[in-house]
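hey m, so remember when u said the tokens were messed up on ur end? i reran from scratch. heres the input so u can diff it against urs
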Amino acid sequence: MACCSLVPTACKRSGFIERACHRSLSLHPDCPLVGIPGLGTGRAARLLILVTLAYQRLTSGNRWPRACVTVGMTSAPRTLIADDQPDVLEALRLLLKNEGFQIEAVQSPAAVLERLNREPYDLLLMDLNYTRDTTSGQEGLDLLARIQAIDKTLPVVAMTAWGSVELAVEAMQRGVRDFVLKPWENSRLLRTLRDQIRQGQQKRNELRIEREEFEEARAIGQALLPHSVPEVAGIEIATTTQAFRLLSGDYFDVLHLGENKLGICIADVIGKGVPAALLMSNVQASVRALAEEPIAPVDLARRLNRSVCRNTTPGKFVTFCYCEVDVQARNARYSNAGHCAPVLLRANGEVVRLEAGGAVLGVFPEWPYEQGEVALASGDRLLLFTDGITEAANAQDEEFGEERLIELACALRDRGAHELKNRILQAIASFTGGRAQDDATLVVVSVG
């Protein structure tokens, strides 16, 4: 059956057939569509060529994802139709209503935006040309950008009697999923709409699942951080952690080990996002389990390293430092697994780096870690930090650096832990202009 016989009379009267039948589309001799047996030169062939060329141009630049596997379509999909010609709207309304679609029709870009802002739809079938501009499609292209701002997941099928490869490419770049050339063939139009609705529903389901998983992972990340810091007489602790994304690869904890002891740990996982947060949750759980019984920092590092090696994929590792502060003995024992060496500032201005330890966690399961010990005195300040503090960079890509951090902390070593922490953060923000480039964690310990 000819395409013309499938088009409602109202569409024939509007002149769509005459305009489409007299249009031609020139192909380059190397085009893969040239010479396909049975392709023909009719409207269906022109539409196939139009969309295929646009698809090829987009995919050659890796800018267009391949279609998702379709899922079952719900009954009575809500469809918004936009066209400035009443006879076209009426023809589409009759066709789609008889096929079980819920239809709402509008005649202007403003009305499209008003409806989309008010309620959700399963599909938008829209013309690219309106009364202000009836041939270039620019009015429709402008509308597409605003539609994307409202709902990026909404499947959009464009209709036009004045299609071109350039218009198809730009429309697809702005969010159009498929094209229908006026005048349309009913069976092809219905198949296109149903396919796009199914794909749109699958995409929305995938995004919903991703959001739920992301929120669960974010909750795990928040649970990693201590909700309160244990208090021990003679010790003041101030902490801060700033995630570059919602999920951080940084971790710190302060554990109460007895009446006069605290366990302070800080770590940084290679990578960011969900994988880093999940690996860090494993580290946190292992540290807390190991610290439930008296254990030397070096033994904790060795056992934790073996655990991370067992539970980490190749190429992933964790920098880690664990420090046991004994207020009564006035000392700190520690083991540093490839982390930024903490800085101990003496009251007299002496600087001691806590470097003893070994390799990062997760690479060498039997690494022989070492343990260091430093004496503590009243007026000492201990800084534990991740590389997001020292590698924070300004607009000229100059890093804040450890030297600048130590000079600042030395100048402010008579301040309490909270004030020292705040002044360091202020200095970094001033240096970088407020630009965050990485997760950043800082723990400041003041010995009274």
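this time it looks ok to me. Residues 1-74 have pLDDT under 50 and may be disordered. if urs says something different then somethings off w ur setup not the seq
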